[in-house]
Amino acid sequence: MNAAATVQQPSYTVRGFGIIKRLGSGATATVYEACTEKNEVVALKVVMRDRNTYMRELRVLKEMRHDRIVKLFRSEENESYRKTGPFLIVMELEPWGSLSGLVLWGSEAAQCMRDVAIALQYIHRKGYIHGDIKPANLLRDGCGRIKVCDFGCCKKIATDDDTVFRRPQGTPAFMSPEAYRGHGGTTACDVWSLAATIFCVVRGHPPFMGQNLVEKIMYGAPDSHRSAPVVCCEEESNLAHLVNWGLSKPARDRPSVDDVLHHPWMANAEDLRARDAACHLFSPSSSEAGSNVSAHSNSIESSTHIGVVPSMSPSIFLAKYTVV
């Protein structure tokens, strides 16, 4: 837990936790920056009524012990009022916030997305899929590393004989085609979401926008993901290839997370960092790098009805940033 030196005065309390400010909210829960009775600063997730979601997330977080996953401090599962809610989950607070609304460049993007892939590799090996990978669920710690949070949509990996329809869960702009069909129980769904997230943190918006989101993700323009990328350097070609591969419509055509980690764009992240420093390959102005994009970025991620037609095909989205 963070030290108490910079604790702000709480505006009100929830079961002994002083609420400092709201960090974010979703369909079933809200997350606050809060302080304990010992003035330790934590992230407090308040799940209002959905006990099943609460218990599922709590069960998964207890299994996750990894430095790329947000750490669980404690919960209220043994309290008498846990049957009625609201339910509380106390987690470590990452002071740099999430990647939502940020544009990353060059090696910074590669390093951050590699952290996410490492976390997904661990989650999949534990027998789960995350189910809601997106910039808002990727937190930056004090060293700039990424930690995955929000396991409210997490579920066990489906087996070959698991044909039960699953109610679609997740964030529409980052959900795979099969997730919309109710078959979102495979690791390929997380890979699609990771590819869409990579696109988003580089371009500043999800790969599909406009009207008829579900139809476009499920059926629209698959050939646009396969066309040759228009790029002027090897790093951008690698990035375009990885995004296009991850956004393959058929789940069987997507890479595994292991494939993603061995892909040249991620495997060469350290080389990219050195090259960025040497020749400013992806160098925006200081006012742009890592800066917030348009104010509606949060609504893009959280909306339950997001449109679709990409403003730029994923296969050519890097052309804007190439160095001639």
Automatic annotation (TrEMBL):
Keyword Nucleotide-binding: yes
A Pfam family recorded for this sequence: Pkinase
SUPFAM superfamilies in the record: Protein kinase-like (PK-like) (SSF56112)
Record GO terms (molecular function): ATP binding; protein serine/threonine kinase activity
One term under GO cellular component: cytoplasm
Source species, domain of life: Eukaryota
Domain Protein kinase: residue ranges: 17-266
Keywords on record: ATP-binding, Kinase, Nucleotide-binding, Transferase
Binding site for ATP: K45
InterPro entries, per the entry: Kinase-like_dom_sf (IPR011009), Prot_kinase_dom (IPR000719), Protein_kinase_ATP_BS (IPR017441), Ser_Thr_kinase (IPR053235)
Protein name according to UniProt: Kinase-like domain-containing protein
Organism: Tribonema minus
